[in-house]
Specification:
- Chain B: It catalyses: N(6)-[(R)-lipoyl]-L-lysyl-[protein] + pyruvate + H(+) = N(6)-[(R)-S(8)-acetyldihydrolipoyl]-L-lysyl-[protein] + CO2.
- Chain B: One of its GO terms (molecular function) is pyruvate dehydrogenase (acetyl-transferring) activity.
- Chain B: This is Pyruvate dehydrogenase E1 component subunit alpha.
- The complex is a heterodimer.
- In chain A, strand 4 and strand 5 form a beta hairpin.
- Chain A contains 14 helices and 22 strands.
- Chain A folds into 3 domains: 76 residues, Beta Barrel (OB fold (Dihydrolipoamide Acetyltransferase, E2P)); 183 residues, Thiamin diphosphate (ThDP)-binding fold, Pyr/PP domains (Rossmann fold), CATH 3.40.50.970; 128 residues, Rossmann fold (3-Layer(aba) Sandwich).
- Helix content of chain A is 27%, strand content 21%.
- Chain A is an alpha/beta fold.
- By secondary structure, chain B is an alpha/beta fold.
- In chain B, a hairpin with a 2-residue loop joins strand 4 and strand 5.
- The relative contact order of chain B is 0.18.
- Chain B is globular, with a radius of gyration of 20 Å.
- In chain B, helix 2 crosses helix 11 and helix 3 crosses helix 9.
- The chains are: A alpha/beta, B alpha/beta.
- At the A-B interface, helix 4, helix 5 and helix 6 of A face helix 6 and helix 7 of B.
Chain lengths: 483, 347
């Protein structure tokens, strides 16, 4: 009986890829382990291996096809002796699920590639049903009174870019502008970046300024800080901020405190950047959100962008900043596209929040990937007659209280959203500030939607439960509106 | 009881090795001027540290205060081999390094007393002073952290191609920290101009080297990375300068890092609050008597160099005057203005 060969997921967050090349043609006999085709994503090229044997009866997706969704049938494999011409896609014994497992032969390189991608679309469990996966990018349609849009001159041409491309362009532009800027970290050069954020930088700037380090976070963070003390401007990439915990002494004790301890003599113009927080199905040690940790430390600036435009503008500002900046990215957002202004030198100031969506009934304050929950919730709330104002903090420290307070004075209600843990989190900080600065304006207690107070579980259903979701944000917004 | 036994054991083990680590028979001699220079510089550190100890006892210096007494030949010998532009970075036993870099004793002492005229305006303290002007990069309180930082300074030197060498100091205790080896690896991999000076004063706080280190020959700590190293009599300033000259030339010539294990001794406790139960008074007395770095030079000055005693006394008096002035300044200088609490957090 014929079976469908499905587009495999190369990593847990891959949703689609390019079918670059077939290595077998219709009618070829296939043994288990044969390489059938090459597929590409923006991060990697991988080979599709055959799991079963038979004859490649029909190729359903031609060479060079872009954007082939994971689990789409790409070919049909006939059993030996079966008439290859008679087989049809979809009529086979395969159901998507076990077929997908059967076909994902290339084991993703978990450390370099796979740590963060989202579960394949069909990897849903019952726990999902009422709530959509929060992962898909929110379309930025309603930017009504977006004060931050003033950062972009009217009439500026916008181009669509992924967060990944925006981050790379930010680094490349700053490296062209200032030869004291260099980037160092694991796999940043020859590998082109574990998440391809540094793609092409080695080719343009050479190994002196794009430095592959050994796997030695504590050591190379210290090397970066020492170089910054002399006035160079290192961009230190951590493959993930989970690994930066090994280096946190250098980030806090050396980078953040030395200016103060030296009576203002020794600044540290350095950027520590990399993906932060949960990706998908990577377990407790690879899913920690450190926004609250770093935001606790005087002497640091902490940035966590959501859009590609902010990612670019803020990273450029971070590189120019004379202080140590912790720049927290998110792997799920890397591949998402946003309009980015086509300007020679576009920067976004550190320390300014953005009213991403205007509304009068409730203020939702969030940052980074938290925006995906907030924007979806706001959309659904609007249908229920509640106009939510969504504020993207963008910078966690120094925090733009003013924008938050101004909004809450208008709405009288506030919900915070973050993926980090509840205790001593960013939401707790905002709630405390509002208690002091907007007490008389609050019509309801500030509610926090956070990651649950548990180490991140691996199982798909439990992970989903551990993260915030849109339904929780909606419920909290309705609760503070007494609806 | 057990603890006392343990402490005695540590002390016994080191006593066997308490003889001077090297006989420096083939060390090149210093000229009269070189010996005079070394004498004055080392004596300044000695007297300064003694005064700091007194001020600490009077309650004028707070917190931690780690004295360099006994180890003076190390930093002075290395400085005599270095060039303008070379940088110095060290751990928390840092007063000697600052003076050796030419930092003003008044500013150092005033930092110890937490006054506004201190190098860090009173906000750093004993372990946290810096001088960009004198290329002194601290003064770091986290054991071993300065080794990665010093490696980064070497990285910057190579990046700029300015020919400077990073002189990165650590103690025998820091030499067991993980990031030290991470740094050794990168420094050799990238051929960074760094000289790692391991000041082996035999005790990491109260733990003797033999109780903490599987490999007590610190010059071999870079072997698996291919970093050359040597043991040096750190009580003889001539031997120190000789070895440092070799090491610095190696680093400056693009050959990569070099490790110098300076075998030295601290006469005082780890910090001011150290009861020193881990070693005998005898051991300390013997080191002072037989190997004192300053006394060695003084003997040479009076002997072979035939410097009149009056001239040496004049040096002594001058040094004492400088130290007294620094103490006076550090005692009378006002505390920082309260508004300083909120300055220098960000640029």
């Amino acid at each position: 009986m014929a079976t469908d060969i499905l587009m495999p997921a190369l990593s847990p967050t891959m949703e689609q890829g390019k079918l670059a090349k077939w290595l077998k043609k219709e009618g070829d006999p296939v043994k288990a382990g044969d390489i059938l085709a090459e597929i590409e994503t923006d991060k990697a090229t991988m080979e599709v291996e055959a799991v079963d044997e038979g004859v490649l009866a029909k190729i359903l997706v031609a060479d060079g096809t872009d954007n082939v969704a994971v689990n789409t049938p790409i070919a049909v494999l006939a059993e030996e002796g079966e008439d290859p011409k008679g087989v049809q896609a979809g009529g086979s014994k395969a159901n998507g699920k076990d077929k997908q497992e059967g076909q994902t032969a290339p084991a993703p390189d978990m450390h370099a590639e796979g740590q963060a991608e989202r579960p394949a679309p069909d990897a849903k469990t019952e726990a999902d049903t009422p709530v959509e996966t929060p992962a898909s990018p929110a379309v930025i349609t309603n930017r009504s009174d977006d004060r931050a849009m003033a950062e972009i001159p009217e009439g500026t041409e916008m181009v669509t870019q992924t967060v990944r491309e925006a981050l790379r362009d930010a680094m490349a532009e700053e490296m062209r502008r200032d030869d004291t800027v260099f980037v160092m970290g694991e796999e940043v050069a020859e590998y082109q970046g574990a998440y391809k954020i540094t793609q092409g930088l080695l080719q343009e700037f050479g190994p002196k300024r794009v430095v592959d380090t050994p796997i030695t976070e504590h050591g190379f963070a210290g090397v970066g800080v020492g170089a910054a003390f002399t006035g160079l401007r290192p961009i230190v990439e951590f493959m993930t901020f989970n690994f930066a915990m090994q280096a946190i002494d250098q980030i806090i004790n050396s980078a953040a405190k030395t200016l103060y301890m030296s009576g203002g003599q020794l600044g540290c113009p350095i950027v520590f950047r990399g993906p932060n927080g949960a990706a998908a199905r990577v377990g407790a040690q690879h899913s920690h959100d450190y926004a609250a940790w770093y935001s606790n430390v005087p002497g640091l600036k902490v940035v966590m962008p959501y859009t590609a435009s902010d990612a670019k503008g803020l990273l450029k500002s971070a590189i120019r900043d004379p202080n140590p900046v912790v720049f927290l990215e998110n792997e799920i957002l890397y591949g998402q596209s946003f309009p980015v202004p086509k300007l020679d030198d576009f920067t976004v100031p550190i320390g300014k929040a953005k009213v991403h969506r205007a509304g009068k009934d409730v203020t939702i304050v969030t940052f980074g990937i938290g925006m995906t929950y907030a924007l979806k919730a706001a959309h659904e709330l609007a249908e229920a007659g509640i106009e939510a104002e969504v504020i993207d903090l963008r910078t966690i420290r120094p925090m733009d209280s003013e924008t938050v307070v101004a909004s809450v004075k208008k709405t009288g209600r506030c919900v915070t959203v973050e993926e980090g843990f509840p205790q001593s989190g960013i939401g707790a900080e905002i709630a405390a500030r509002l208690m002091v600065d907007a007490f008389d304006y609050l019509d309801a207690p500030v509610l926090r939607i956070t990651g649950k107070d548990v180490p991140m579980p691996y199982a798909a259903n439990l992970e989903k439960l551990a993260l915030p979701n849109v339904a929780e944000v909606i419920a909290a917004a309705k609760a503070v509106c007494y609806r | 009881m057990e603890a006392a036994k343990e402490a005695r054991r540590g002390s016994d083990e080191t006593r066997e090795k308490a003889a001077p680590p090297h006989t420096a028979s083939n060390v090149p001699a210093f000229s009269r001027d070189e010996d005079l220079h070394a004498y004055r510089e080392m004596l300044l550190i000695r007297r300064f540290e003694e005064k700091a100890g007194q001020l600490y006892g009077m309650g004028l210096i707070g917190g931690f205060c780690h004295l360099y007494i006994g180890q003076e030949a190390v930093v002075i010998g290395v400085q005599m081999a270095s060039k303008d532009g070379d940088q110095v970075i060290t751990g928390y036993r840092d007063h000697g390094h600052m003076l050796a870099c030419g930092m003003d004793p008044k500013g150092v002492m005033a930092e110890l007393t937490g006054r506004r005229g201190g190098y860090s305006r009173g906000k750093g303290g004993s372990m946290h002073m810096f001088s960009r002007e004198k290329n002194f990069y601290g003064g770091h309180g986290i054991v071993g952290a300065q080794v990665s930082l010093g490696t980064g300074i070497g990285f910057a030197n190579k990046y700029r191609g300015d020919g400077a060498v990073s002189l990165t100091y650590m103690g025998d205790g820091a030499a067991n920290q993980g990031q030290v080896y991470e740094s050794f690896n990168m420094a050799q991999l990238w051929k960074l101009p760094v000289v790692y000076v391991i000041e082996n004063n035999r005790y990491a706080m109260g733990t003797s080297v033999s109780r903490a280190s599987a490999q007590t020959d610190f010059s071999k700590r870079g072997v698996s990375f291919g970093i050359p190293g040597e043991q040096v009599d750190g009580m003889d300033v001539r031997a120190v300068r000789e070895a440092a000259t070799r090491a610095i030339a190696h680093a400056r010539d693009g050959e990569g890092p070099y490790i110098l294990e300076m075998q030295t001794y601290r006469y005082r406790g780890h910090s001011m609050s150290d009861p020193a139960k881990y070693r005998t008074k005898d051991e300390v007395a013997r080191m002072r008597e037989e190997s004192d770095p300053i006394e060695q030079v003084r003997k040479r000055l009076l002997g072979a160099h035939t410097v009149p005693e009056d001239e040496i006394k004049a040096v002594d008096a001058k040094v004492r005057e400088i130290v007294n002035e620094s103490a006076e300044f550090a005692t009378n200088d006002p505390e920082p203005d309260p508004s300083e609490l909120w300055t220098d957090i960000l640029l």
